[in-house]
């Protein structure tokens, strides 16, 4: 650990476990810990005024085990039994559950469950496997410190970007949507793969997001907002007000070495565990949490043993990501930007079970072949050069 003063160490507070970063991954672990191991002396430290930040986190029913769905369900703000996608020439409803968590409700529930075990408004200045220092000089020692402080730096040449602007709208009359629209790609592509995402909270409230898959991270939020309001008008919806805004920009890896080597004692985006094509991290965070809890239940939270467990877990997980890296290279490097939607349109024409396995990150070899078989929706020579390119440079 760097920069920690000896005087601070002499007044060090001790805990069994400390989680740095009270966003999605850190919050979910703390949520489950408080339920499963109420006697554990742990702390969740978040620099924001509340946990969670400003997000809507969604996941598919088949991304999680039944048990995980059970313990996460009190945090779910809304769920639907189906969703739809819309591409030129393909309109489809997929009959598979979809769930949404709102970070404001997540923060309230977490605060109630954790009580004093949640420390907000505290910036973690430095940490190591068993020590943590706050910016105000408070020092902690623990059996284990887990880093869940969100994404790390990435190499911009080795990623594509999923970027979006979201608006929560209140409408004058019912919008008529029964299920989320995961992709309406029948909109002008504007030089990227662009689609509108719609989440109907109730019959007059919805979240609309303008999403782009792009080689650059910048996005003009005002222009995107104007385009979304045009879209709303074209659908015949009368807007009363915008009640919330949300933005995001996620790096999607094209090669393994897209970021600094992930640290073993980390969670969420900090560990690099997320779906490389969709950017969703909730399912991977939940899987890691279940693995950690199974280990700690039988053993304890000592950092050296956990570090070994997590290193093995990460290595094994990364070895299974080559296919998703290839898909990203197809999407970002082989497809002409305006034609990227064709890759996704082809994907959504496949069987529902394959689509479920894709979201869950569990594609069998036959699924992988099925997805790439036939005439590719991109230039053949570019597709071949993506296949020839290795996932690690
Ligand atoms: C707008 C948006 C929407 C997304 N939607 C989805 C989705 O629908 N489904 C899905 O699975 N994924 C989604 N993702 C991707 C990903 O799951 C989220 O980014 C998710 O929040 C990542 O979780 P995390 O815990 O790794 O990081 P975060 O949720 O970002 O949490 C990190 C936390 O650490 C805190 N922190 C950082 N530094 C310090 C410090 N020095 N001291 C103390 N605290 C610190 C931050 O304030 C933050 O609260 C979305 C991402 C974005 C940006």
Detail the poorly predicted runs: none
The CATH architecture assignment of the largest domain turns out to be 3-Layer(bba) Sandwich
Mean pLDDT: 92
> Would you identify the CATH H-level superfamily of the largest domain?
FAD/NAD(P)-binding domain
Q: What is the straight-line distance between the termini?
A: 31 Å
Largest sheet: 7 strands, mixed
Any idea what the shape is?
A: globular
Could you say what the CATH topology of the largest domain is called?
FAD/NAD(P)-binding domain
Q: Roughly what fraction of the amino acids lie in strands?
A: 25-35%
Strand order of the largest sheet: 6-5-13-14-15-12-16
Instruction: Report the radius of gyration as a whole number of Å.
Output: 22 Å
Q: How many runs of DSSP E, i.e. beta strands?
A: 16
> Could you say which structural class the secondary elements and strand pairing correspond to?
alpha+beta
The succession of helices and strands, N to C, reads: HEHEEHEEEEHEEEEEEEEHEHHHHHHH
Helix content: 25-40%
**What number of domains?**
3
Helices, by number, come to 12
Bound molecules: flavin-adenine dinucleotide
CATH class identity of the largest domain: Alpha Beta
């Amino acid at each position: 650990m760097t920069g920690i003063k000896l005087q601070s160490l002499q007044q060090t507070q001790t805990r069994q476990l400390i989680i740095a970063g009270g966003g999605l991954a850190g919050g979910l672990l703390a949520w489950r810990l408080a339920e499963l191991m109420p006697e554990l002396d742990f702390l969740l430290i978040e620099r924001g005024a509340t946990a969670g930040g400003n997000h809507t986190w969604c996941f598919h029913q088949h991304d999680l085990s039944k048990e995980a769905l059970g313990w996460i369900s009190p945090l779910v703000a809304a769920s639907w039994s189906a969703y739809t996608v819309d591409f030129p020439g393909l309109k489809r409803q997929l009959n598979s559950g979809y769930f949404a968590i709102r970070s404001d409700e997540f923060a309230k529930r977490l605060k109630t469950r954790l009580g004093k075990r949640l420390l907000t408004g505290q910036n973690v200045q430095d940490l190591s496997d068993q020590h943590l220092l706050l910016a105000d000089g408070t020092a902690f020692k623990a059996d284990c410190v887990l880093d869940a402080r969100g994404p790390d730096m990435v190499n911009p040449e080795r990623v594509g970007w999923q970027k979006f602007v979201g608006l929560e709208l209140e409408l004058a009359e019912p919008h008529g949507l029964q299920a989320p629209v995961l992709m309406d790609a029948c909109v002008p592509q504007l030089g990227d793969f662009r689609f509108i995402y719609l989440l109907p909270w109730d019959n007059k409230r919805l979240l609309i997001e303008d999403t782009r898959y792009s080689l650059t991270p910048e996005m003009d939020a005002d222009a995107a907002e104007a385009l979304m309001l045009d879209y709303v008008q074209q659908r015949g919806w009368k807007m009363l007000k915008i009640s919330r805004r949300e933005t995001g920009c996620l790096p999607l890896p094209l090669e393994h070495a897209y970021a600094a080597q992930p640290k073993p004692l980390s969670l969420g985006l900090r560990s690099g565990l997320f779906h490389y094509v969709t950017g969703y991290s909730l399912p991977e965070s939940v899987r890691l949490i279940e693995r950690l809890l199974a280990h700690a239940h039988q053993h304890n939270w000592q950092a050296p043993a956990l570090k070994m467990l997590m290193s093995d877990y990460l290595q094994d997980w990364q070895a299974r990501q080559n296919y998703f890296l290839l898909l990203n290279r197809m999407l970002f490097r082989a497809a002409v930007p305006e034609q990227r939607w064709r890759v996704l349109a082809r994907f959504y024409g496949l069987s529902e079970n394959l689509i479920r396995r894709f979201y869950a990150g569990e594609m069998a070899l036959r699924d992988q072949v099925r997805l790439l078989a036939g005439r590719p929706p991109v230039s053949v020579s570019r597709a071949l050069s993506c296949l020839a390119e290795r996932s690690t440079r």
